[in-house]
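=== Per-residue structure ===
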Amino acid sequence: MTRLAVFSLLVACAATTALALADSASAGSLTRTAARGKATVMVPLFAWTPETCAIYPVQDVKIEQAPQHGTVSISKAGVKLPASFGVCAGTAVNMPWVVYQSAGNYSGTDHFTVSWRSYATTLENTSRYQAYDVAVTVK
């Protein structure tokens, strides 16, 4: 898949992906569905403050556990926050996205873990490590 195709996929998915998932303060588990053999946006990675619409970048993004039946990549794309972000809707953010693609014609379940470090506000002097264990159902 070309960079332009991945970027187009990310922009197209921005309005339908639950962007707020990336703002949690602790580890979590997510369940996602992916189309067999197609790059699918799984998780956006950023932190934000809803009162001010301030966006905070993440650092040290790592795939802690790779999937067994596909690949995971990190792609960065600029998008505008969707209406679900209330007063922050339309705010432009440039964030990394986790993209999963199953191997060949594989269908079934897969799993990977992604971690990153972020600051919750500009007033924080220490960063927080966060992670998601992502269970993927490939159809």
